[in-house]
Design goal:
By secondary structure, the chain is an alpha+beta fold. It is 31% helix and 13% strand. Among the domains are: 45 residues, no CATH class; 50 residues, no CATH class.
Length: 199
């Protein structure tokens, strides 16, 4: 065994200054969080803390639903749950819900504990449930979030084309050829199964 490999097998202790709170501390070099004196400092360095009533967004990476995650006690945990447990209390409830409805928010003042049923009910009440229908659906509550008609990047028809198709008495196959779409598209436009937002 060479002297270099012997040295590499022992952890090297380094004196550091915490990037968040400026406390001097000792750490082994190279490990995750080695620039922070504690997990709390590492966690809060990834949150943009603003005014007490504002959202405090997670500024590290987010998942496809907009939630932050961090490794804590050997598991990948939702960032807002960690914020609640660090600032308020450890949780017995399985979920932490947002009053502000911003998935990235870690402000403990915007968070409250709840059961899985509470989380599901909150999701439906706020129109975020994909299964909600009618007036409770997200597309009715928040129409600006859902592209429709010509705003859909694959749309071949314009609102003017739709009006012309609906007013026309020509057979579907002829209209389909003229507008460059499938016959089923003509049927869906006429029956208002698509482009229903035009009335």
């Amino acid at each position: 065994m060479t002297s270099a490999s012997v040295r590499a097998s022992y952890p090297v202790v380094a004196n550091r200054i915490c990037n968040r709170c400026a406390i001097h501390f000792e750490t082994t070099t190279g490990g995750p969080g080695s620039y922070f004196c504690s997990f709390e400092c590492r966690f809060w360095s990834k949150v943009s803390r603003r005014g007490p009533l504002e959202c405090w967004p997670w500024i590290a990476s987010l998942d496809s639903h907009g939630y932050g995650h961090i490794w804590w006690n050997g598991a990948l945990v939702l960032a807002h749950r960690v914020a609640f447990e660090l600032e308020v209390k450890p949780l017995a409830e399985p979920c932490v819900l947002h009053e502000c409805d911003s998935p990235a928010c870690c402000n403990p003042a915007h968070l409250f504990p709840g059961s899985k049923q509470d989380n599901s009910d909150d999701c439906i009440r706020k129109g975020r449930d994909r299964k909600a229908t009618g007036d409770a659906s997200g597309s009715r509550l928040y129409p600006e979030r859902y592209p429709r008609g010509a705003r859909v990047n694959t749309a071949r028809l314009t609102p003017e084309d739709v009006a012309e198709i609906r007013a026309s008495t020509e057979p579907g196959p002829i209209l389909a050829g003229r507008f460059g779409v499938n016959r089923s598209t003509i049927t869906r436009v006429r029956t208002r199964a698509s482009w229903a937002h035009l009335g």
